[in-house]
Amino acid sequence: MSDLRYLVALSQIAGVGPVKLRLIRDRFGDMEWAWRAGAADFTAAGLDEKTVQEIVARRPRISPDREMERLEEAGIQVLTWEHNSYPSRLKEIYSAPAVLYLKGNVLPEDEWAVAVVGTRRATVYGREATEQLAGALGRNRITVVSGLAKGIDTTAHQAALREDGRTIAVLGSSLDCIYPAENVRLAASITERGALISEYPLGTKPTPTNFPWRNRIISGLSRGTVIIEAAEDSGSLITAEYTVKQGRLLFALPGNIGSPNSRGPNSLIKEGALLVERAEDILKALKFTAAREKKTDPEPAPRIPLSREEETVFRCITNEPKHIDLIMTEAGATPGKISGTLITLELKGLARQLPGKLFVREE
Predict the structure, then answer these.
(1) 39 close to 58: Cβ distance less than 8 angstroms
(2) What separation in angstroms does the CA of 332 have from each of 194, 335, 340, 350?
(3) Is 167 part of any domain?
(4) Nearest residue to 198 (alpha-carbon basis) of 222, 215, 180
(5) Cα 98 to Cα 258: distance, rounded to the nearest angstrom
(6) Are residues 171 and 249 in the same domain?
(7) Can you tell me the distance from the alpha carbon of 43 to that of 49, in angstroms, rounded to the nearest whole number?
(8) What span, in angstroms and rounded, lies between the C-alpha atoms of 113 and 144?
């Protein structure tokens, strides 16, 4: 892809994220042309003055060819929106990374993934629960996604690997700056049975602002997210928030009401997250078994007639849980109409509501 080096180079400039890269691509089409464009052209593309100034200032200090050489020397692959291997579920989310840096391999089977995240200060209870849940997911050929952090994340990756399962780690730094350093060997093992993924260019150190933003990728790669232990200020709750916004299922492990690490999950359960005790709870809620077996009825029974509005909403509901806000947007419905229509579909046996205002087909 001739545009790749210029897309990579532009993505390294502060302030040029996925949304602005889309504006640039829509304006110029050809990324080499964009790389050589003037300030006025970037302004015409819809970029703000601060970003335009940053591009003009940083561009002379970046060599697109040298950046690609450095990535090759480090054994790092680059995936863009147009790449066939770019994870399709991640592509669906708002602000999907324009550039993904990858060590290891992303396989089609990784479409069946569940995120398992939690506090860095895990208790014995949290670690044991993570080992059981992530290990069972690995045995069931479900890819475990997490963030390589200390505590719950580390345990989740290790449990999946012990069961010869696949696991993906999403970093809050570049792939040449593994954090925490104590997980360098674990990171190497993950590349053999999964992948390390980052949206940050070479040389990016871990900073506090990187981690909350990378959490959208963890949930975006996954069909659901399990929160194991999380204090009230835990970054895992940001992942939970992204999970709901992306229309994916949210699970939480209940904990001792006297433990600070239980406040996050217990609160999520009160707000509608699915309580999880065993991996079977996750598999059942996400209908993994049925999907794996790919059972189909040769002669589907005729369904009850629907009004035009009901039909429109029904078409937006799938066999995978989808949030009411996403259904409303896709159907072009109003807040006042969507709830009533969904209730009607439930009464007709065509839809089912799950906790967290999520809906699936019952057909």
Answers:
(1) no
(2) 39, 10, 14, 20
(3) yes
(4) 215
(5) 43
(6) yes
(7) 7
(8) 6
CB 315 within 8 A of CB 361: no
Q: Pairing relation of β-strands 224-227 and 99-104? A: unpaired
Residue whose pair of structure tokens reads 């699915």 in the numeric block:
274
Confidence of residue 291 (pLDDT cuts 50, 70, 90): very low
Q: Give the residue numbers spanning the domain of 285.
A: 104-290
* CATH code of residue 232: 3.40.50.450
Neighbours of 347 (CB within 10 A): 10
DSSP string, 228-241: ----TT-THHHHHH
Rounded distance, CA 51 to CA 109, Å? 38
The pLDDT value recorded for residue 167 is: 98
CA distances from 135 to 144, 162, 252, 317, 360 (A): 9, 7, 17, 31, 27
Note whether 127 and 59 are same-domain residues: no
Name beta bridge partners: 227: 117, 252
Residues 177 and 285 in one domain: yes
Alpha carbons 240 and 146: distance in angstroms, whole number: 13
93 part of a folded domain: no
Distance CA 39, CA 57 (A): 10
pTM: 0.78
Token readout for 194 is: 């999964």
Does 227 lie in the same domain as 354?
Answer: no
Rounded average pLDDT over 212-232: 96
| C-alpha distances in Å from residue 120, one per residue of 217, 234, 237, 343 | 19, 9, 13, 41
- Which pLDDT tens digit goes with each residue over 42-57? 999 899 999 999 999 9
- pLDDT, mean over the chain: 90
Residue 154 sits at the vertex; the CA angle it makes with 256 and 192, to the nearest 5 degrees, is 150
Among candidate residues 92, 117, 77, the one with its CA nearest the CA of residue 221: 92
pLDDT average, residue stretch 248-275: 94
Helix axes 152-162, 184-192, angle to 10 degrees: 40
Per-residue CA distances from 204 to 51, 52, 186, 199, 262 (Å): 19, 22, 20, 10, 33
Residues 265 and 352 in one domain: no
